[in-house]
UniProtKB/TrEMBL annotation, chains A, B:
Pfam families: CbiA. Signal peptide: none annotated. This is Plasmid segregation oscillating ATPase ParF. It comes from the Bacteria. Keywords: Plasmid. Residues 4-171 form the CobQ/CobB/MinD/ParA nucleotide binding domain. It comes from Crinalium epipsammum PCC 9333. Transmembrane segments: none annotated. InterPro entries: CobQ/CobB/MinD/ParA_Nub-bd_dom (IPR002586), DNA_Partitioning_ATPase (IPR050678), P-loop_NTPase (IPR027417).
Amino acid sequence: MKILTVTGYKGGISKSTTAIHIATFFSDIGKTILVDSDPNRTALAWSSRGSLPFTVADERQAMKLISGNDFVVIDTPARPDSSDLKELAKGCDLLILPTIPDVVSLEPMLKTASDLGAANYRALLVIVPPSPSKEGAAIRSELIDNGIPVFKTMIRRAAGFQKAAFEGVPIRDVSSSKARVAWLDYLALGKEIMEVLGNG
Amino acid sequence: MKILTVTGYKGGISKSTTAIHIATFFSDIGKTILVDSDPNRTALAWSSRGSLPFTVADERQAMKLISGNDFVVIDTPARPDSSDLKELAKGCDLLILPTIPDVVSLEPMLKTASDLGAANYRALLVIVPPSPSKEGAAIRSELIDNGIPVFKTMIRRAAGFQKAAFEGVPIRDVSSSKARVAWLDYLALGKEIMEVLGNG
């Protein structure tokens, strides 16, 4: 069983969306469960509006439900403190930290990374403005220059995520060419996560 | 795997002590883990001061550690609201609600029980004044008259629990005749829990 934990140093960084789409990717490979530990219960609500290709469990039932799964994706509360982050990292195979490519987000991300030290984590650029904007690549370089491990894949901003949330499905089930492009980003991310897990 | 969750409608009801001693009982029967979800981390601190005959896991590492255990005892935060209680009950095989035998505790316990409805739970009288006091039996009757399922076993008040906490061991490892008597209460409780699980 592989455990992937998605957490955020602040709100509004598309944490639950990220967790849902990582779980969607892994549900094609093995039995997958998403544990919703975020008091907002965004993933549970998403699931209840439509249908997701994996089980979404309330954290209070997680112990009962995770047995027999190949992949466990945990959506945590936002804004953990630094001791929380370390404990979260110890509790999973990979800690994934979505981050928005703006200068305001850079400072807390650097602080978070310094708290985490050599822990098993990767930053993930999300809500990245599409080309020709270079914001994503610029912030990614900045993070790397500061010694932070960052996924090569960046998740581009796409209106389809709103629609997917509304319909209660993953973005790959939203019928628009832009939504398909957004899903390609998650496919690439999923492959990159598998590489990291393989080397771990 | 059997999951036993200990929760309380208020603080100071010996919730962590109860969880630790239930886990001690089950550690003689099968591989047992106690998941400490209480922000006070009482069970983790108890364990760190000495040695307990089972693993105590920080809740943030629980998903990684529970696999392969026969018994999972969950020590929850105190004061869950009524929706929490129902979700907690759904997430376990038996929800255990320690309660103190005083009139002040009766009202919140009755409220809690009405929130729980027909869920899989049992109230447990703890910190019961020893004979000739009849307080424990009186409150137990009161709860039963109100339709609340209550363990036959009552855990008597014993100074040995303080010593056990200080030494970081279960009370059965504290050398005094009174401590041995206190452990007998937990032995009886453990047997009663096994009966309930068997019928469940």
